[in-house]
C-alpha cells in the first residue's frame, strides 16, 4: 500500500507524535447496538505514507475542498498529478487496513510550475482576490520561490497529525534542496477555510477589501490555522466567486448565519520552525 513513514512499532523507534499511533478520531458509529451513540470517540490506528498513483481519486475531492465553492475554476486533476509525480514530497494519512487517504500534506512550487495551467489559475485567482494586498502579493510571487502548501483532511481526522506531517514535509524539501532540486521555498501560501458571521440571507459575492475580520466574527475551519496565522507575513480574506449557498443560520430565529470563505496566509520559511513549536504546544 506504499512505504510507511516514520513508524516502527516493534522496535519503538517511532514516537507517538510521528506515527499517529494512539491518536483518536471522532467517527460515526454504525453498529446495531442502541446503547452506542454516533460521534463517540474511538481509538483508531493510522500511519503516514508516500503518495501512490491509487491516491488520485481521493486527492481530487480534498483538493476541491481547498478552493471551496470555486473549485471548478481550477484544473484539480493536474494539481493531483503534480503532487503524485513528486511523491517523495509530502505525506498521506491512512487508517489501518484501508487504502484511501484520510489526509494529506504537500507543496507545489509556483515558480517551478508557472507554465502549468493549474498553477496559472491559482496565481490569477489569488491576485484577483487579494484586494488591497494585490501589489504586495504580486511582487512576492514574481520575486520569490513560493510554495503552494496543501493541508487537507477529512473532518474526523484529529489536528494532531499536522505537526508530524509539517515536520516531515520540511525535512523532505530540505533533502530535495540538498539534491539540487527546486524546493528551496522562501515563502509558503496556505488557503485556510473560514466561516464569517453575516446576515442569514446574505449571498452577496462582492469582494472584501482584503483585510481580515471586517464583517463580524470569523471562525477558523481548522483549529491549527488560528495559530499558524500568528506567524503570517501577509494575509487577506476573500469570498468565493461562485457562492453556491446562502449563509446558514444557527437556528430558526437567528438574524445572522455563517458564510464559508477563505483566508490566504503567506508565511516566510523562517517562521516554519516556530509554527511547528507553537502547534506542538497547543495540539499535543
How would you describe what is shown here?
The radius of gyration is 19 Å and the shape is globular. Helix 2 crosses helix 3, helix 4 packs antiparallel against helix 5 and helix 6 runs antiparallel to helix 8. A hairpin with a 6-residue loop joins strand 11 and strand 12. 30% of the residues lie in helices and 24% in strands. The protein is an alpha+beta fold.
- Give the helices and strands as they follow along the chain: EHEEEHHEEHHEHEEHEEEH
Distance between the termini: 28 Å
Q: Let me know the number of strands.
A: 12
Shape: globular
Strand content: 15-25%
Mean pLDDT: 82
Largest sheet, in brief, is: 10 strands, mixed
Instruction: State the secondary-structure class.
Output: alpha+beta
Helix content: 25-40%
Low-confidence sequence ranges: 6-37, 249-254
Round the Cα radius of gyration to an integer and report it.
19 Å
Number of helices: 8
Features of this protein?
284 residues; alpha+beta; ten-stranded mixed β-sheet; two-stranded antiparallel sheet; 8 helices; globular
